[in-house]
Amino acid sequence: MTRKTLLTLAFLMCILNFASAQKTLTPKEHFGFNIGDNYKLADYTQTEAYFKKIAASSDRVKLVNIGLTEEGRTQYMMIVSSPANIKNLDRYKEISLKMARAEGLTEKEAQALATEGKAVVWIDGGLHATETVGTHQLIQTMYKLVSGNDAETLRILDEVIVLLVHANPDGQELVSDWYMSNPDTLKRSYSQLPRLYQKYVGHDNNRDFFMMNMAETKNISKQLYVEWMPQILYNHHQAGPAGSVVAGPPYRDPFNYNISPLTITSIDGVGAAMISRLNAEGKPGFTARNGASFSTWYNGGLRTTSYFHNVIGLLTEIIGNPTPSAVPLVTSRLIPSGNTPNPVTPRKWYFQQSIDYSVSLNYAVMDYAARNREHLLFNIYTMGKSAIEAGSKDYWTLTPKKIDAINSAYRADLADKKISDSIARLARSRGDEMPMKYYDQVFADLTQRDARGYIITASQPDFPTAVTFINALIWSGIKVHKATADFTVEGKNYPAGSFVVMTNQAFRPHVLDMFDPQDHPNDFQYPGGPPIRPYDIAGWTPAYSMGFKFDRFVNPFSGPFSAVPYGEIQSVAGKFKKSGSDAGYILDCQTNNSFIAVNDLLKSGAEVYRLTKQSTGKNAAKQGSFFVTKGKGDAVLEKDAASLGINITAVSGKPETATGKVVAGRIALWDQYGGSMSSGWLRWILEQNRFPFSLRCNSRTYPGRRSGWQRSLQRNCSKGRRCSSGIP
Ligand SMILES: [Zn+2]
Q1: Residues with Cβ within 5 Å of ion ligand 1?
Q2: Distant-in-sequence, close-in-space partners of 340: CB < 8 Å, separation ≥ 6
Q3: What integer pLDDT is reported at residue 697 of this predicted model?
């Protein structure tokens, strides 16, 4: 090639790059301001329109509708990668899932797939809507990825499939519109928001990722654990602790003993890349580990649930708002340490800086993924494979209670004069060492083994609630089996339709954590000192709190089990047989869904009675169960038996104990201007169970300066009337 041709080529490439950069609509052209400008926020309507325009104009983007929000908006995920990868997404998704699930995959096959596949990185924003850096960094990051032609961006696009996910569209619309509605920019603020930024649970939308109650949680979990299985998940929040700019990985103890050690050390690896990038760019103020309160103990946040799926989950909490703020003077953070290697000194702080930090941190994560693509893919396979192996053999997880049992047995012997002398001699000669027999007492004890699996029998009164639990596992990508015929395990009979959850699966940590009680380590400031407050909840176990029955087996077992396809939500049909001689029907009070049916029956005008005592005779029913007179409610019963999974028993006479006539209670639900998470959760529960209620607000009001629904909500609140009417 001649020098002239080369020059021409270079020139042409410049034009091409220029043309490509020109094609991408800038945020300023679309929103009318730069992302990061003072006093400016984009709302969801504008953001959604931007996402659509960018997706339509770029072959680096695929826009995916991941479902509706609780308020009915469309929630989007933008898949960003090179045009070649975008064309081949199905294959890369398949590889990502295969590697994460690790089923029947040899190391050689896994190695080949790791070479062929692309790293998958999830970045979300806006879960907590007043943490406005979240959504805005998402917009800016998408713009940079789509328009950028620098070497790093191009390498990322080639090696990584980036999933940019809006975590809470409803919240962005509310918060941004509220903030921007004040024409006086200097007075713009998030304070006095009229309601929660998630319709029911507000901030608790980040406590729902093991139960899957809210629409957004289901949308997100399905993409994470059923559709894609990214190797890295980055969940953006704010604000960092006073005197820092951003808190992030790695996190402090306690770490949850169910999580793979490789997950934890991988968080260290990516965390180091994030901190180092900020340091290299002269961006001080990152704090990690004991510099903040975040641990890896809790399972149920958007970030933390990922650990129980072998995903490298990252959370950052950054400062910054469109209204300029300041880094205050906090002297305890000013001495460099392992937690805070590059302290930030007090200074004025602008939104743009927070956006720049966030984009840098995203790029650090994506660059790490691009450079370590094969490792990431192979490591998630390794974690999945180890989990399958641990669930396929006798295995004792190292838990605080087991270690305590060793210590107590040892201490008891030391206190026993007859044997303490020889032990004490041994202890003196070996330092901290204990005789192995204390270890064996626990770790050879067959009763202390981890579960091989759990069986949820279909023959239990509240099977529909058990199915709700099973569906929470299925939304979370867990492999569930269903019995195709009756079977027996360890002498106990189970009917066809029972569910089985085995622990020999890649996401074993999540299975163990959902069924077994948590064993939080003693975490005190010093021996005898005050406890260190856990970052979040210390115990959960829905398999206990939901009240259904299940059996836990530490021995291997098998049966006529068929795997439910991943992500296939389960339902159960109840039994309801009518005949001409029926006087009415019994609904079992042990089934939670019976209460929903009773609410439906009362609405239909049917007569419902409660059994004040257990009834006798052929179809004896428990005290508290319901009797419905045949007639007005029959159609409701027909429908509810099918959709709610309740078994309804026909009886030829009204039970003698069915003396308590049921009338709908008058329920008023307290709420307040600004909303309340407790009230919101209860509102959701009442709606789910179809209890009629009326929302009453206290008289706390906000000085009127708004229009439309905001003013009407305030008016209703101030009169103590229903305030739901003003809630869009
Ligand atoms: Zn947050």
Answers
A1: 128, 131, 237
A2: 244, 285, 286, 287, 288, 291, 333
A3: 78
